[in-house]
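In this section we walk through a basic example: taking a raw amino acid sequence and producing a predicted 3D structure, encoded as C-alpha cells. The instruction is simple. Fold the sequence below.
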Amino acid sequence: MNAKPLVSVVMNCCNSDRYLKEAIDSVYAQTFLDWEIIFWDNASTDRSAEISKSYDDKLLYFLGNQHVSLGAARNLALEQCHGKYIAFLDCDDLWLPTKLEKQVALLEKNPSLGMVYSDSYFFNERGNIRRLYHDKKTLCGNVFKELFANYFLDIETVIILRSILDKLPEWFDPRLHVMEDADLFLRIAYEYPIDCVNEPLSRWRVHKNSDTFRRHELFAKESSLVLDKLMALNENFKDQFSEEITSYRRHITWLEALSCMRVGQAKQCRLLLRPYLLKSKSFFLLYCLSFLGQKLFCYLWDKRAGF
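The resulting C-alpha cell sequence is shown next.
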C-alpha cells in the first residue's frame, strides 16, 4: 500500500458492529482507489474490532486506551492520517461508489477550497428514503453566513484538506460529543470557500441508537458552546452577524424545548416556546404537540423520521 495515500478516511467506532461491515465495504467499493481507512476504536466491547481487523492493510486499526468524547476520538484518528485530503464516515452510514472520485476531482481542480460536500440520502430500516437537499438549494463559495444561520452539512458528505487543519488552532473540540463536526466545519467555512457535488454521494442511516437520537439533551448545550467560540473569532463578529446570531439562538431554544418534551417536561417546553409562537410555524406546532403528553409526543415525533 502507498505509504501516503491521497485520501485518509476517518472512521470513529464505539460498539458499532451492527452496521460496520456494510459501512467499511462501501469504502472498499469506491471507484477512486488511492485511500486509507484510519479506524479508531473508542474502547468498544462488541465485535467491532473483529470485523474491522478482517480487512487488508488499507484499513489501519487503532484501539483507544479508554473511552473519550467523540471530538477527542476524532482528533486521535486525525493524528494517524497520512492523506492530503481527509474524509469521514461514521460506522452506521454508507458511501456511494463515486463519492471520493467526484469530490477529489473537485478539490484537485480548485486548491483554494476549504472543503467540499455533497447531497446525501437519508434512509431507515423501514425503507423510507429522502434526499437531504430535496427542498433546499446547495450553496457554494464563501457561505459562512448562510451555514451559520441554517447549518446544512452532514459529516459523511464532507472532505477537508489536511493543510487547512494544520493551520487551525484547534481541530475537533474534545469537549463536544454531538456538535464536534459543526464546530470544526463552521470555523473552516469562516476562513475558506467551500464547494459541492450536487448529487447524493452517501447514505445517512436514521435509527434510534444513533447519538442524534440518544443524546438529544446535549445539542442545545453544545450549540451554545459553539456559538460562544464563533463570537470569539473576532471583535466585530457580533456586529457582522447579528441577524444570524439571533437565528442561531432561536434554534438553541428550539433544541432545548424539544429535549424538554422528550423527557416529559411539557410546561418548561411551552415556556421556552411562547416568545416565538407568532414568529414561527414550527415553534407553534411544537407548542401544540406539547399538550399530547410525553409518550404520544415521542411516538409521533419519531414517526416523522419513519420509525
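Looking at the output, two observations stand out. DSSP finds 14 helices and nine strands in the chain. The mean pLDDT is 92. In the next section we compare this with other chains.
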